[in-house]
């Protein structure tokens, strides 16, 4: 009994699993083309991770944003950069992905221009910076992975505010509003892609 108690206490004193654990457990296939990502950040909210390759010469970053579905396969996920540097969804240019009613995946860049954005696909002229190689995949019916290559805004270096999100419903082909409490309103951070 004393040995069991000592072992239980010893395990309780171990640090919680690190973000590296969350990152190292992911592999990419399908639309990810078996890509390998040199860097990964376990994001502090919504159980998401961001895998990325930064190319300093072109100031571009190839990302794989991975997030659990909020409640079902009917939900949506999004990841983006707010070039203003504000920790806010307003002003963010995001890539959103969801499963359409016919079972295919929709994935596209959008501009979050208010707290009630249209979530419609953005025209290339509406984007503050180019986004290419946009793709998505559904993993085991539990997670969505969004892929994109972002040409980071010129003259702003490699450090940006990024925002990520998940919602539980898509209505008539449009992602519905996400919850406005808890982690859903705290899912923003600063990231330096060169680190």
TrEMBL record:
Main location, first listed in the record: membrane
Signal peptide coordinates: 1-19
Alphabetized, the UniProt keywords read: Membrane, Signal, Transport
Domain (DOMON) ranges: 46-167
> Per the record, what is one GO cellular component?
membrane
Q: Sorted alphabetically, which Pfam families does this protein's record hold? A: DUF568 (PF04526)
Q: Where's it found, cell-wise?
A: Membrane
Fetch the InterPro entries from UniProt: AIR12_DOMON (IPR045265), DOMON_domain (IPR005018)
The protein in question is named DOMON domain-containing protein
Q: Which organism is it from?
A: Digitaria exilis
């Amino acid at each position: 009994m004393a040995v069991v108690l000592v072992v239980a206490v010893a395990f309780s004193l171990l640090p919680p699993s690190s973000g590296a654990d969350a990152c190292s457990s992911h592999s990419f296939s399908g639309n990810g083309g078996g890509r390998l990502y040199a860097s990964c950040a376990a994001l502090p909210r919504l159980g998401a991770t961001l895998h990325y390759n930064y190319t300093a010469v072109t100031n571009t970053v190839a990302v794989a944003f991975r997030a659990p579905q909020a409640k079902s396969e009917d939900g949506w996920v999004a990841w983006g950069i707010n070039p203003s540097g504000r920790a806010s969804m307003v002003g963010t240019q995001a890539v959103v992905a969801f499963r359409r009613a016919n079972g295919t995946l929709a994935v596209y860049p959008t501009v979050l221009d208010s707290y009630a954005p249209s979530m419609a696909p953005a025209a290339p002229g509406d984007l503050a910076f180019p986004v290419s190689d946009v793709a998505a995949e559904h993993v085991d019916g539990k997670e969505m992975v969004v892929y994109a290559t972002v040409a980071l805004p010129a003259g702003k270096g490699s450090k940006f505010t990024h925002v990520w999100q998940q919602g539980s419903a898509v209505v008539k082909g449009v992602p519905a509003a996400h919850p406005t409490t808890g982690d859903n309103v705290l899912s923003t951070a600063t990231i330096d892609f060169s680190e």
